[in-house]
Amino acid sequence: MKQILQSFKTGVTELAELPSPRVKGGQVLIQTTRSLVSLGTERMLVEFGKASLIQKARQQPDKVKMVLDKIKTEGLMPTIETVFNKLEQPLPLGYCNVGKVVAVGKGVTDFKVGDRVASNGQHAEFVSVPQNLVAHIPDNISDEEAAFTVIGSIGLQGIRLVNPTMGETIVVIGLGLIGLLTAEMLVANGCKVIGYDLDDKKIEIAKQKGIIAFNPRHGNDPVKFVLENTNNVGADGVIITASAKTNDIISQAAQMSRKRGRITLVGVIGLNISRAEFYEKELTFQVSCSYGPGRYDDDYEFKGIDYPLPFVRWTEKRNFETVLQLISAGKLEVKSLISEVVPLDEYDKIYGDIGNSKSIASIIKYSEDSKLENTIVVNKKELQPTKGIIGLVGAGNFTKMTLLPALKGSDAQIKHIVSSGGVNGTALARKHNIAQSTTDYDLVLNDTEVDLVMITTRHNLHADMVTKALDKGKHVFVEKPLALNHEELEAIQASYQKSNGTLMIGFNRRFSPHTQKIKSLVGDAPMNIIATMNAGAIPPEVWVHDMAVGGGRIIGEACHYLDLIVFLSGSKIKAVCMNALGENPAENTDNASILVKLENGSTGVVNYFANGSKSYAKERLEVFSQEKTLIMDNFIKTSGYGTKGFKKLKTKLDKGHKAQFGSIVNKIKEGDIALIPYDELINVTKASFAAIQSLKEGKWIEIE
């Protein structure tokens, strides 16, 4: 399929060939017929992409600080590599989509194949969209009209926050597309609407819709104009839909408001607010969040959990439906706002000079003959019919930043890369000379040429994908964790015992040259190990914290250090106890100390902390054994005390990953990737589960 993408690195907007997405549970797969270009938002993204690195930095000073902090802790070159990899990631454009449903995912009940719908899907021939971001289109509305649904809901949410009543005077600052839609909906609400903009064409359109509109460039002072049209009372409410860096707009909004007036920001402006202007009138100021309640809430958007209507009357989906009702009833007329309808293949007529575009609304038209194709050939290449052909499942940060760079130069033959939407997978296929990009995992399983399946998806998908790959007789590498619960682990064990394939988990710390050196110096004698991970806080809404998706950070990441302790001690874990920060710590805690007993008498402590300074090293290891002490700092430097003939080791940060993946490729060519004893893998996984269980029970948990 074809999709419009934007490069933040080069500034190029392209029509890319991508595999079609597969419908997910709770989502609907839509064949697009029309989509609307949000000229304000998309112009900003395109122009940001075209800016130089220095200009990009000036526009995002908060990101610059994050980069500087990362340089302090991880070094210059790894940070530069991270920044450039981020810039290389293509950005799908668009969020105003109309089409017909061609498939429904598991759990979807409100939609069926053939329904005509509006959604926040992108500029692509096919999109898979969560059901709470999709709305039915009334029969009397054309596809072009329905394309205004989502962008109209942005203005509608701003109106809901201002909470206008019939007869009130509301000012709309900025009469671009969102501003015009907002103003017309306010008129339909029975308000007196005043609007202003610097474009005469938009002023004329606004006047035709019953709005008192003016251009300040023609001599009208905005504050005086509003006061004169309200008998010097001032506006009851102001909705700012403009996009400008100046602080003048927020000051004007305050000056033209009546006492106890309401101001809502929908656009993007300077916010250096004068306290006196707001204090004297006791003004209310609020920033509107996109389409309405539910936005950026994963429970609502991706899990389909709706807010109860009696308590949250207007969600983003119900705002979509309201806009469609207004268009259907003739209360919101949008046809006159359409400047052009352009076929998808001629997208450059819109994006080629978008910075200077005078259009109000541009519509993209799609072919009715679009075909669902879940796989595309990215690089025509002949693969050697020997061991070592890989199917890579997952195209996220780990694959991009760690796995593929580490495989570079190893003669790895990657035939397929699987990604859920096709965008990231195709970009990585181009960069790393991978033959095919697909959204179909079954294609990899059924390909008899594929020897090894490498799985780097979100954690909740690991177990099912591992069992299916083992059942097909494939060798499997899966990024940690192996499973999220005992049931998944038992299913994997059952498949493994029947399979001819081997299994490896991505525990990479044991492959570091630092770990290998420490191991050679202490042997298998009983030892005390203290491993500290200064993991840093991540927002609570990130998927890793979700116990059903990520399993929490202890199962999802601290497991690395349980494996490290097993490797260094040469013994399996037999008991675990975890203490977490706080009086009543949650199951998904990310501040905990995990105590482990090993079968050979060794002890280990894993300190996994998220409340430390990011300027401090992320990882530290201390090993005490036979009157020797070894201190490893961030896998960059290891110091030895009481270790005759050894004092210090320094290496680059990524050596461990390269050692790990290089070994995997070599072993695959030999027909075996069981680099870690299988019972160790299972033991470490059980120890991760036991750590969480011990938190609940407050005691040591024996490992089977």
Automatic annotation (TrEMBL):
Please indicate which superkingdom the organism of origin belongs to.
Bacteria
Annotated membrane-spanning segments are: none
By its UniProt entry, which CDD domains does this protein fall under? Answer: 2-desacetyl-2-hydroxyethyl_bacteriochlorophyllide_like
Give the matching SUPFAM superfamilies.
Answer: Glyceraldehyde-3-phosphate dehydrogenase-like, C-terminal domain, GroES-like, NAD(P)-binding Rossmann-fold domains
Q: Which residues form the Enoyl reductase (ER) domain?
A: 59-265
One MF term from GO for this chain? oxidoreductase activity
User: What is this protein's record name?
Assistant: Putative dehydrogenase
What organism does the UniProt record list as the source? Answer: Kordia periserrulae
